[in-house]
Amino acid sequence: MTQKTISIREITLHRMVMRLKDPFTTSFGTFSDKEFFVVEMEDETGAIGFGESAAFSSPWYSEETVETNKHVMEQFLIPLLLESPINHPDEVSKRFEFIRRNNMAKSALEGAVWDLYAKRNGNPLYKELGGTKQQIEVGISIGIQPTAKDLVSVVEGYVNEGYKRMKVKIKPGADYEMLKEVRRHFPSILLMADANSAYTLDDIDTLKKLDDLDLMMIEQPLAHDDIIDHAKLQSELATPICLDESIHSFEDARKAIELGSCKIINIKIGRVGGITESKKIHDYCAQQGIPVWCGGMLEAGIGRAHNVAITTLPQFVIPGDTAGSSRYWENDIIDPEVIVENGVIHVPNKPGIGYEVNRKVLEHYRVSKTVFSNKNILA
Ligand SMILES: O=C(O)CCC(=O)C1=CC=C[C@@H](O)[C@@H]1C(=O)O
Ligand SMILES: [Mg+2]
Is 194 known to sit in a ligand binding site? Predict the structure, then answer.
């Protein structure tokens, strides 16, 4: 039976630090730990929902960091959530909208509301979102390797594990030759490149060469906040451009599609401010015939579970970056962990995100916690 409004009694921010199995190298440098918040949200009935913040410790991917998330959640967003009951999770982004950007802070809290809402209704989150799949195909994201030979052997490992799509990070000097070698060894695998804004329009000849390699897409080749130059580049490339960092909202997606800046969109729940906005982008892309897939932010299990749920929506037609928990973690904070079998995740049919939070593991990796109680609701 669908319950009436949600009155949040308590929000706990668990500050987490988890050591990655392998260091993660980006244009900003290499990091070995993922710092993030687990949002635990209890309502007046005692039901508990969970969310996870996506921002990294330094502002290399977007302007947000773990610290900015903490500040904005504690000072602005949590008080807004506690001030009055919520009728539906779609209301949360509305309540937050006068606060500029800070999407990953917003998304961490909104995700907990969605989980709580689904649990109160006794439904799996994916069903509350209109998901249609009982299993999802997933790919894997591979960092820049020292040599083409190293890259081929890493790809081979994941092909043997059954992953359905290989995403290879590229940068000037580590692009065409590397990808050509992969394509030579694996003529028919689903192969894409992620450039993380490492190129400019001056590199157009290099990027056009990638057209020979039958790539599914080139992800975010140009500046992180651009859609104009991407439109110029897309008009020159046969390979579809996929935008990631450029898309922070439904409006960004609408404008990029209208300009022809991309033919595919990587939806990251944190980057766009939450599940409600992700669904809006998904639905618009379905209308416009633009394929979408679910990107990753090296999430732990709660964020990974939210990604699984959103990927069950029908326009998520390309395998995304939601690898198994074991890709990054010795042990994950959920039970069971996210398991990939032959490139497929079976979507759990339990209420909410469908995975239990393993409190023992959560407390093992937790460095601090802060509790926010709603004075208007007695414990
Ligand atoms: O979470 C994953 O498994 C994939 C992570 C990943 O590929 C990325 C995370 C953040 C920025 C980039 O480096 C890249 C991406 O662009 O999606
Ligand atoms: Mg990307």
Answer: yes
